[in-house]
Write a structure and sequence with these properties.
six-stranded mixed sheet, alpha+beta, about 45% helix, Cytochrome Bc1 Complex, Chain A, domain 1
Length: about 425
């Protein structure tokens, strides 16, 4: 019998292995990344199409094309698609990322072929019905009107525009007139150019064997020809520095956003900055949270994040506070940035961050379904599973002096843009 009064021994995590990934190609040369777990009766398939914002002929084409895939195919209406998914016990999501258009389906292994047949229909033969397009456009405009009443939404839209530029794929914003200028022919053309030419990668995980892989090749490897890749459109970023204020909707809280341009995840400083960001505002025990929420009670939530895309990235700090506390919040954020630049952090604090991150990494590779989701994000950004091992190694090896060096390089106030949206005290 175990003695429940004695806690288990705390062990350090010095290595986390990424699950084995099998790479192969369908008959039409579409690459497949497979993490098999034969004892599971479920599967996850993520199709990543190079059809995001850098590939658009006009703003919003990528996201709206994704949304229209749900509205039916040449063989099934939107309601029939929904009923078919329910019958198979499957879920379908269509996340529109910055660089890619993704299709994620999860379901039972016994219905694999039926589900993949439906997925092939969505990719090859969506109907783009005019009436559904008009209804989607009006819903999107109505949702946008509601969102623009929220200071935090306006703040995020504006800070990304200030960091990249109003015409940059990562910086432009949607407006009501943008939806009015879209045409159904633009959506059909975007689909024809990217979804029907095999510009995609497949990520598959779960309980799978030869019958399922043969069905996958039959549905997606023989009916979609592989066309030539299209070069993305990535102009140079146009950053607006300094402090900016936008009158908001008169809500009780003013939104604060601070940001600076960075780079993609292939940069040699990325892993170190990921750790520094966690320390600054990337988890509940971060310095910004301890100071501005826990100690001073100026906000309910404050966080920082590294927003990385395939070709570029930025570092953001965000919170909402009472208008009378805006200046105090901004000063406290800059003070925490200054401390990281000027003071060597305590090793005990670094160990806390180290253990938190290693625990997070463990959860990200807990089972094949979690692992394949992480792998899809890596490969979409031009990385491979070795990136995961490098992250674990960097977390284990980083020292307080490394944190200070990075802070001195990236936390200088002059390299950041500050923005407030709402009532100005």
């Amino acid at each position: 019998m175990a003695n429940r009064k004695i806690p288990p021994r705390i062990q350090t995590i010095d290595r986390i292995d990424f699950p084995e990934v099998v790479n192969y190609h369908l008959d039409n040369e579409i690459p497949v990344y497979l993490i098999a777990q034969p004892d599971q009766e479920v599967f996850r398939l993520e199709i990543v199409v190079d059809a995001g914002r850098p590939y658009e002929s006009a703003p919003l084409v990528s996201r709206t094309t994704q949304q229209m895939l749900r509205e039916g195919t040449r063989h099934r209406s939107s309601s029939e698609l929904a009923e078919y998914l329910d019958y198979c016990g499957a879920s379908l999501s269509l996340p529109a990322q910055m660089d890619t258009a993704n299709l994620v389906v999860q379901g039972l292994r016994k219905h694999f072929e039926a589900i993949i047949t439906m997925v092939a229909e969505l990719l090859r033969a969506p109907s783009f019905p005019e009436d559904e397009w008009r209804a989607l456009r009006e819903r999107s405009k109505a949702n946008l009107r509601i969102e623009l009443e929220k200071n935090e939404v306006v703040a995020y839209r504006q800070i990304t525009e200030y960091l990249f530029g109003e015409t940059h794929p990562y910086g432009y914003n949607s407006h009501l007139v943008t939806y009015d200028e879209l045409t159904i022919d633009q959506l059909r053309g975007h689909h024809d150019q990217y979804y029907r030419t095999g510009q995609m990668k497949l990520f598959l995980a779960g309980g799978l064997g030869d019958p399922e892989l043969e069905a996958l090749n039959k549905c997606l490897g023989q009916g979609i020809p592989l066309g030539e890749a299209t070069e993305p459109r990535i102009p140079g970023a146009e950053m607006r520095r300094g402090y900016h204020h936008i009158p908001g909707s008169g809500q009780l809280q003013t939104a604060i956003r601070m940001g600076r341009p960075l780079f993609d995840r292939r940069h040699p400083d990325y892993h170190g900055l990921y750790i520094l960001n966690t320390l600054l505002g990337g988890y509940f025990g971060s310095r910004l949270m301890d100071n501005i929420r826990e100690e001073k009670g100026l906000t309910y939530n404050i966080y920082s994040s590294l927003d990385t895309n395939r070709h570029d990235g930025c570092w953001l700090i965000a919170c909402e506070t009472s208008p009378k506390h805006v200046e105090t919040c901004l000063a406290e954020i800059e003070q925490e940035m200054r401390k990281l630049r000027e003071e060597i952090m305590d090793r005990e604090e670094l160990e806390m961050v180290r253990n938190y991150l290693l625990g997070t990494f463990l959860s990200q590779v807990d089972g094949s379904l979690n692992s394949i989701e992480w792998l899809a994000g890596l490969v979409s950004d031009g990385l491979d599973p070795s990136f995961f091992s490098e992250a674990v190694q960097r977390v284990n090896e980083i020292q307080p002096e490394d944190i200070q060096r990075l802070a001195q390089s990236y936390l200088e106030p002059d390299s950041w843009t500050s923005l407030t949206v709402g009532v100005k005290s």
